[in-house]
Amino acid sequence: MNEFDNQITDSGLYSLQIDTLQLNLGAYCNQECNHCHISASPHRTELMSWHIMQSTLDVLEKIDCKLIDLTGGAPELNPNFRRFVSALHKAGHNIQERTNLTALLEPAMQDMPEFLKKHQVALTASLPCYLETNVNAQRGSGVYAKSITALKKLNALGYGTDPELPLNLVYNPGGAQLPAEQSKLEADYRRELSERFGITFSHLLTIANMPIGRFKTVLYRKNETESYGQRLKKSFNPKTIDKLMCRYQISIGWDGSLYDCDFNLALGMPVNHGAPDHIKRFDYTALAKRKIVTGNHCFGCTAGCGSSCAGVLVTVT
Predict the structure, then answer these.
(1) How many angstroms separate the CA atoms of 160 and 257, rounded?
(2) Which residues contact 63 (CB under 8 A, 6 or more apart)?
(3) β 167-171/121-126 pair status
(4) 204-206 and 258-259 as β-strands: parallel, antiparallel, unpaired?
(5) Which of 143, 178, 246, 265 is a Cys-bridge partner for 259, taking CB atoms 3.0 to 4.6 Å apart?
(6) Phi, psi (5° rounding) for residue 125?
(7) Which 8-state DSSP code applies to residue 57?
(8) Which residues neighbour 248 within 8 Å (Cβ) at sequence distance 6 or greater?
(9) End-to-end CA distance of the chain, in Å?
(10) How many CB atoms lie within 10 A of CB 241?
């Protein structure tokens, strides 16, 4: 047993149901951000094939899933992205995509915002700060300006203003600290983005940096690996356990392997304890009650107010 298991229960952590199917469409990305947990970049070649996407569509015909969550990398840069989204939309699924915003400005992506609107894809967009200096330091020179351009284009289409077109922004700290209070940060984002650019959005989601992937390398270079790990452990909040995203979803890797979450995917830790570990062997009954694979990185999701793909888990610590 790892330290996290010792912290929660003698019997381990178990799934409660599967509301969300999250698919990582690949590690290829047009950016190379310091905090990226899967170390995505323009140099990565891993991409989900249509074969795996079709297997997922076959599974979805047999189960009732509330949300299909598409992530990456830059998921829209997968060559099969449009075909897959079209098939999901035709089948009546609720779709969400996690975009880095700048991918929408790539040469072949100029009409992507219109495509997303047509297929009613909800967007969760990374904008780790409302200040240009902070964003560029974390994500690369010029990224902030491109992100603002993309947000304006999305607003013009109704994203962030039309209730049917949600546009959520994602904040994560620039360094080895926990996010500030989500509601206060959201107010700051609304004020700054509105006053400076006339930009509106639906909600702000705050997510803690996980001590894995490229951020782990950043911690090592700054000699903060141990101190950040201890900060997460000391901030453990047992109230977050019932709401952990791994208890309500399954993540599908680009090769079809199944994971409890995208962080476990980044670490190469597929579902285990007897549960099927590939989309070809998907068994809802077994997976919905599976024992979750945990590690010390799980303290990142349970620190403070908690952290998940949907933001904080609890409002008080």
Answers:
(1) 34
(2) 18, 284
(3) parallel
(4) unpaired
(5) 265
(6) -115, 135
(7) H
(8) 15, 16, 17, 18, 19, 20
(9) 26
(10) 19
pLDDT tens for residues 66-113?
999 999 999 999 999 999 999 999 999 999 999 999 999 999 999 999
The C-alpha atoms of residue 97 and residue 173 are separated, in whole angstroms, by: 21
Q: Which two tokens stand for residue 135?
A: 């964003």
- pTM score: 0.96
* Cβ count near 276 (within 10 Å): 16
Asked if 37 and 263 count as a contact pair (C-beta separation under 8 A), the reply is yes
Q: How would you label 91-111 residue by residue, b for 16+ Cβ within 10 Å and e otherwise?
A: eebebbbbbbbbbbbeeebee
Q: Tokens 């309500």 sit at which residue?
A: 248
Q: Looking up tokens 């992530």, which residue turns up?
A: 71
Residue 23 has pLDDT above 70, yes or no: yes
**pLDDT tens per residue, range 214-244:** 999 999 999 999 999 999 999 999 999 999 9
Residue with tokens 């915002």: 113
Whole-angstrom Cα distance, residue 276 to residue 279? 8
Tell me the domains of the chain and their CATH numbers: 16-227+244-290 (3.20.20.70)
How far apart, in whole angstroms, are the C-alpha atoms of residue 293 and residue 50?
28
Residue 101 has which token pair? 């915003």
